[in-house]
Structure prediction request, 172 residues.
Amino acid sequence: MAVREILIAPDPRLREVSKSVVKVDDALRTIMDDMLETMYAAPGIGLAAIQIGIPLRVIVIDLARDDEDPQPSFFVNPEIHNPSEESGLYEEGCLSVPDYYEDVERPTACTVRYLDYQGNAQSLEAEGLLATCIQHEMDHLEGVLFIDHLSRLKRDRILRKLKKDQRLAAAE
Ligand code: GNR
Ligand code: NI
Prediction:
């Protein structure tokens, strides 16, 4: 397993629409293992493949707390069904938008259909943080970032600061 570099906005690759996985094989499992290790190292609770530059519809999530055993979940070709009519606000962050946290409104529950690490079809009823995280990761598969749910003023302000941070880091 290897920790890969996480792309930071406004990297144009984060705007790509990821492609469906054709086969869950060992090559894909290596990517999923690297995604998990990269997410744990960050640390974060979710990661989409495009965040390490791989435009495939693959997500890893682990919501376990530090004092709990790891509970990694792998979602290949995930689809959201039956989003709840009820929506709620959750303060989101993103490893590709480091150090910014803002409330985003999303359905509070949904069903997810996907292929697991072995390639078996699964269905999961998600609510709360899991539902939020899955929807945040699904957005990445469409080239959408959580800041796209904010006002243009807030989004542009964050993107401008991110560009400046990267300019300063490059000059170091
Ligand atoms: O680590 C992460 N935390 C988080 C908090 C609230 C809502 C979504 C997330 S996902 C984020 C990791 C990430 O960027 N995944 O794409
Ligand atoms: Ni993210």
